[in-house]
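Posting this for the archive.
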Amino acid sequence: MSVFTPVSSDEARALLAHYTLGELESLEGIAQGIENTNYFLGTTTGQYVLTLFEKIPREDLPFYVGLMHHLAEHDIRCPAPMALQEGGFLAEVAGKPAVIVTRLPGVPHLSPTPEQCRKVGRILADIHEAGLEYDAGLANWRGQDWREGFAQRVRTKVTAGEAALIDSENRYQAMHDDTVLPKGVIHGDLFRDNVLWDEEGEGGVIDFYFACDDALLYDVAITANDWCTDSLAALDPERTEALLEGYDAHRPLTDLERSLWPVMLRRAALRTWLGRLEYNHFPKASEMTIPKDHGFSRRLLEHHIVHARPLDAAGD
């Protein structure tokens, strides 16, 4: 959620003329994040978020915006897109496609408790269940082809040992057929900073712009790799168990999913590591941005290679 494209107050007022959201009161850039330009947008009717899409292909945007609308209609606490007076949700600002969504209350908790992990597991299961009724689809652009292609691109930016680890893990992942796993719409980026907790302790999910169709278990692994890790880049057993219990109580994992848990943990760690290498070594110019720690993701992958076990074998 960096600011790559500046938006002036006059541009924001011109945009608001296409909505019934009242008059502009405030406009503030958001520094966190790395994919899109985001602003807090205050009007006489409430608080919103304005997003300008910097990299996502225009033809894919209806999937993401429609998904948020669908989930909000199914009682998932997430940003709801605001409709333009002329219809639809997508507008244009400074030559970029844009959307205005509701601003959720609350703040992230970057040191989550087991109970918060349990709630996040429940939220993720609810997203997966509601997503089964969503009638649009989108392939995961950060799937196997991207992982293997980016490995070649980043080779000159990393150490020989890191390049060998990436190649080895890509070979390992290519050996496993995930088409046998339950699939559906995944969030794809349910990290701690993408859940906002309100004063009542309820969590709302933001940033659906990595959503796609993929193995549901992969989404659980992505989430666990962020919510349940400790400072040593290992999974904390108590928080991991709580997250999985919260999820499993509302969408029970199959025996096959439980057996492939270590594969998905490794795949999730690899994708996050490669993504953070990309942000650090091939950055996009922006006014405000916060880099990500790619070394931590590498250490997490190394941990999973040695320690990850099927869920039943781990006593879950």
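The chain has a mean pLDDT of 94. The first helix runs from residue 9 to 16.
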